[in-house]
Amino acid sequence: MEIGLWIHTGHFAAGGPTAVIIGVLIGIKKLLPNAIILINEPGWFNIQLFGIYQDVRMYPKNTIFGPNPIPLSYVGMKDANEDLVWSHANHLTFSAMWVINWLEQKFPIRKAKNDKTKTVNLWESGIDTDYFTPSLEPKTQDFFIYYKSQRMADIENIWSVIFHNFYGMTGTVVCYHFYKPAMLKDVAQKSKFCIMLDNEETQGLAALEIMACNCPIFCIDRTYYRSNNKVMEGTVTSIVSWSPECGLKSTEEVWKSDFETFLSNLSSYTPAKFVHENYSYKEAARKLISIALKARDLEQETEQS
After folding, report:
1. Measured between alpha carbons, how far is residue 131 from residues 157, 268, 298 in Å?
2. Helices 205-212 and 181-190, interaxial angle, to 10°?
3. 3-class DSSP state of 289
4. Cα distance between residue 213 and residue 105, in whole Å
5. By percentage, how much of the chain surpasses pLDDT 70?
6. pTM
7. Average pLDDT over residues 173-191
8. 295: CATH
9. Of 124, 128, 195, 256, which residue has the fewest beta carbons closer than 10 angstroms?
10. Distance from C-alpha of 220 to C-alpha of 59, rounded to nearest angstrom
């Protein structure tokens, strides 16, 4: 079996996009050891996995684009008919409903799906569940705060609330882009819980890695997303891949009262079970290939009709 994997080989961003590509490569080889992966060449079915595109018109018609194939920065900058991906891609894949809701301000995604002019799928990347695992060692600190782009005042506010109301708790801070996997694994394994301040994520791979170490998360979400002076009210989250067994999601408005509820239920959360059952590289590859096969079959039916 030959799989066409389309990526932009001239530029790789740090963080999530590169991690997704690596995870898909590993997952496909775990799932289909004998598969031949062709880079930027047509395969039996085809997957495009990066937010920076070469000329979309060169890709096979059955290529699935994603996750999040239309960059969020385009919203408010281009008309839909000026976007090459939107104009020429038949099969789109997103990692979160909030992303679709946001992009609907510019791209008629749901209409295209209902009219059957495009297929629209949800797909979430996996993580290295062989590496991020629970530890048998006792927990040695109470918590850590994971943050991405919050103001320092937001973090100081949380520290202040914990200091004045839960005196004696021990914790630390981990900042996006300023850690290596071994550091995140170590702090997640030895912490009783994580407080996540991450504004918004199209998926949130770090959250999955933290939960895979069986560290429950108290997530403080915002209720809006702003980009290019456009605001989306509604469900905007730092963690897309989520289940109530992983912890508790709150918002900036009510987090103080919700935090006590979270602490009282701390021993009942089992995030590692949820992540290891659903988000291994192999399981994510299985779901992605299923989407790609449906796109291939649909294009074949269209050609024959």
Report:
1. 33, 24, 37
2. 50
3. helix
4. 37
5. 89
6. 0.91
7. 92
8. 3.40.50
9. 256
10. 40
